[in-house]
Specification:
With 129 residues, this protein is mainly β. The protein has one domain. It is 12% helix and 33% strand. A 4-stranded antiparallel sheet has the order 3-9-8-7. A hairpin with a 2-residue loop joins strand 4 and strand 5.
Length: 129
């Protein structure tokens, strides 16, 4: 039997286990215009290793220090809510802040941000990634 892998950050490395299932594609990396990164440099996202440890999303990538993101934060601060584009769809997201943005921007060598799908966002379809 093969293990199912989940991708808490869309297009990043996968992780197995039941604990990861509820977080599958909860986060995504968007460009400076709020669009899901696809193709080109986003291929480097596959090199980002994902872990889950003590309630944190743990991110590791070649040449980067580890980044820990709290996973189950209550989304009650409207100042960090944004709209992201996933394909032709607008999706309600929460920006994970400047530290995460700097980490991904440095790793990918382009301006980008880590955002999380808002828990109250309506259902949407992921494009073929």
């Amino acid at each position: 039997m093969t293990e199912t892998f989940y991708h808490p950050v869309a297009q990043c490395g996968g992780i197995g286990g039941a604990a990861a299932a509820q977080y599958d594609r909860r986060w995504l990396v968007v460009d400076q215009d709020g669009a899901l990164l696809t193709g080109g440099r986003s291929g480097a996202l596959r090199d980002v290793e994902i872990g889950i440890k003590f309630g944190y999303l743990v991110l590791r990538a070649p040449g980067m220090l580890r980044l820990d993101i709290p996973m189950d934060v209550i989304e009650d601060d409207d100042s960090v809510r944004r709209l992201a584009r996933i394909g032709a769809q607008q999706v309600d997201v929460v920006d994970e802040g400047d530290l995460a943005a700097t980490w991904f921007s440095t790793f990918l060598d382009q301006p980008c941000r880590l955002v999380k799908v808002h828990p109250e966002a309506p259902e949407f379809s992921w494009p073929e990634l």
